[in-house]
Amino acid sequence: MERLVDKVALISGAARGIGAAVAARLHGEGAKVVIGDVLDAEAKETAERIGEGALAVHLDVTQPAEWESAVSAALLEFGGLDVLVNNAGIVNFASIEDYSLEQWNTVLAVNLTGCFNGIKAAIPALKKSKSGSIINVSSIAGIRGYEQIPGYTASKFGVRGLSKSAALDLGRYGIRVNSIHPGVISTPMTAGMTLDMSHVAIGRMGHPGEVAGLILYLASDEASFVTGAEFVIDGGDTAGTVSVPGQS
User: Residue 243: which residues within 8 A CB-CB, separation 6 or more?
Assistant: First the structure.
């Protein structure tokens, strides 16, 4: 089944993790994909693994000029742009008491301003698409607060709000904008972390491919009446807490 035939997608942070899974899934459904990342070697490997119709480009999302170059690459190589996935993100840790301005600026520059830069760069090309779609990867940290990650949490709440505002501005052009809110997903970002998932309804971490399936839906024409919405994919984490057997 090819749900994205003749569409072109640009995915940031696509060298590995969720971004790489999204690139592979969209390509598998007929899309041409531009894999943007600062990890040049890994991005190239991902593009080669996906095969024909995949292009790796260097993309630092904090740099508007690099966004312009990535969009231009999509236009030159594949003739257009229909889907933008703002996936690049980082996290840093400290309590608000100890959190530095440098930490704050660093995480907001990538997670929130990077998303803004991508939207701005993609708008002219998406206006020419018959069904433009922007999918912004937020987090369940954009739904509720978490200790020790004030910058990350603020940035992901920001992505949630930016998505709704952009949806209102861009709907007149037929461009849809939605945010997704993954819970704990098994990626290089979470590697090495000790995470107890026993309180979550599904009882495990999510997989990048599961997130990619949701993004595929939002990128496709099946979601033609969906905009300004937020989609939680967290195994039930934000629904509440389940009791662990044997504990009261």
Answer: none
- Is 152 tagged catalytic? yes
d(CA 228, CA 77) in angstroms, rounded, equals: 30
> What pLDDT digit, counting tens, does each position of 132-185 carry?
999 999 999 999 999 999 999 999 999 999 999 999 999 999 999 999 999 999
d(C-alpha 175, C-alpha 230), whole Å: 16
Domains of the chain from N-terminus onward: 8-236 (3.40.50.720)
CB within 8 Å of 197: residues ≥ 6 apart: 184, 203, 204, 205, 235
Sign of CA dihedral 193, 42, 34, 104: positive
